[in-house]
Design brief:
The protein is an alpha/beta fold. 38% of the residues lie in helices and 12% in strands. The longest helix has 19 residues.
Amino acid sequence: MIKKPLKIDQWEIPNRVVLQPMEGCDCNLDGSPSELTIAKYVRAAKSGAGLIWFEANAVCPEGRTNPRQMMLTEDNLPEFKALVKDLKKMAKEECGIEPIFVLQLTHSGRQSIVPMIAYRHPIYEETRPVTDENIVSDEYLDTLAEKYAASAKLAREAGFDGVDVKSCHGYLFQEVLSGFTRPGRYGGSFENRSKLLLDCIKAVKEAVGDTLLIGTRLSVSDMVPKPYGFGTTEENEIDFTEPDRLIEMIMAQGIKVLNVTVGNPYYNPHVNRPYRKGGYVSPEDASVGLNRFEVIEKHIKDKFPSLPVVGSGLSYYRNDLFEQSERQLENGICDLLGYGRMWLAYPDFYKDYLNGTFEPKKTCLACSNCTLLMRNKQVSGCAIFNEYYRNLLKEILK
């Protein structure tokens, strides 16, 4: 099934391989793609993947998580337009396919250069202290729908086929969803906490209509105990009650594809990135996290069978990567297969599979040194198989 196209309305994804959004922290200071950024997406375009989900793209300067985060603007639109055009041409010439290109729209919130938080969070603030002055006002949140709509229109002009109204990993939209203790129009009740995400999806839909495929990468559960986490109980177990309500509502607003994730990599990185080796010691076996992904994705597919779901966690698998991928498709766990760390480590993994030359020893080690680079304010890439990033890691570890 992995080779089988998937049609979502007028968009046809030529196969089930999705390259997940992997931030490189390597754009130019104006947010435009640098040589490193371009080189990464050239590798993506030549990979044979059916859907290339571009990394986090800030909708406003204050929402950037680092000074070199991607940010599409009126001023740098020509650079993005040229890149997308070139990538589509490369994919057609190299692989004979026309991939779908999705741009992830984001506001980094608590992880912005100057933290912008939804409420005081005692768990997250153990590692990054803030004050009440960092809490964003309702009036500020009111302005974001217009910013997301403007970014979506720019994405369409740049040649992207879709956009992702991102709500995951503890960034602003996701934190608002867990704002049980926040007062005002965006906190407390489920209706208030879901308002920001729904308003921005609605604004994007009104701005671009049916000309873009609109999706969302959603943390279905933060895996942080209630009242400080979305989709969890006070005992930190997954509670689907609110996620199910939210998914039903975002579908009604025009979401056509759901990219599933879990947890917050700044707090519980093992949840969304099961580890095999590395400096981080996971409190749970990788099999627990891998099973959690499958349980969540199957629940969503059973509850919302018409909603295409992108599965996650697959980069952990090595020797049996494609056997596990096919199993998930055949068992109705997901419709599309998301690979994040994998494509940084081995960008030709799918092309080699098609050619019968797939080499498991080239696959991701699930060590997350790519994230270690990012946390140390370096550009990010595979520090195992790519010499450039490997040398950067050596400098950090000296």
